[in-house]
Amino acid sequence: MIDCCIFDLDGVVVDTARYHYLAWAALARELGFEFTPVQGEATKGVSRMASLEIVLRAGGLEGRFSAAERERLAAEKNARYLRFVSQMTPAEVLPGVAAFLHDVRSRGVRTVLGSASKNAGTILDRCGLRPLFDAVVDGNEVSRAKPDPEVFLKGAAAVDAAPSVCVVFEDAAAGIEAASRAGMRSVGVGGGASLSAATMRLETFAGFTFEQLAMKIDRD
Ligand code: G6P
Ligand code: MG
User: Fold this and answer.
1) Residue numbers of the chain with a pLDDT score lower than 50
2) Which residue's alpha carbon is at the smallest distance from atom 11 of ligand 1?
3) Residue 209's pLDDT is what?
4) Which one in 14, 75, 81, 129 has a CA-CA gap of 20 to 30 Å to 99?
């Protein structure tokens, strides 16, 4: 049985990963080094401050800044990132996602957003998606990052669903592991090679229906 679908945001609902990357790369350039797209992969699904550590390490600058300076650098990156976010429109919702959310809800199944981002609410509003979620749990409410299951357990609790009836949609290996540690099934979204632990894989939401999900994941 599936009673609740929990969605990661970045890379599942919208493609904000490239905005995160551009903002980190601009910060790195200011600090005097290049932060490559390949290095940027490691920041996916990782909290803002942990991502900053990854960037600083890439430039050989780990341990060089005080806590207050790191806060300032993270704030600078976030301001840049929010400039991209402020230009977002519903056209940036990934193909098939809105239709799938409508389909899920029409079955009486709850929809929850579970994201590490503190900007999740702003992004949902920009893209007109807020009304399609019964609950939103984001980086403002969670203190332990994926692969810790906290974000998904809080999401399930917000709609009073047991983990065993939840399915998590994730594009990052840490998120798939978090789902498994929460006792939830998972769908690995996109082509990422590191999602083999997911219960099932899904290239794109385009044309995907709740019935197909239930057939694949709920055969038992
Ligand atoms: C998501 C993204 C990460 C980002 C994190 C925090 O997990 O995949 O790349 O660092 O959210 O986002 P925030 O908007 O709070 O800086
Ligand atoms: Mg993601």
Assistant:
1) none
2) 117
3) 98
4) 81
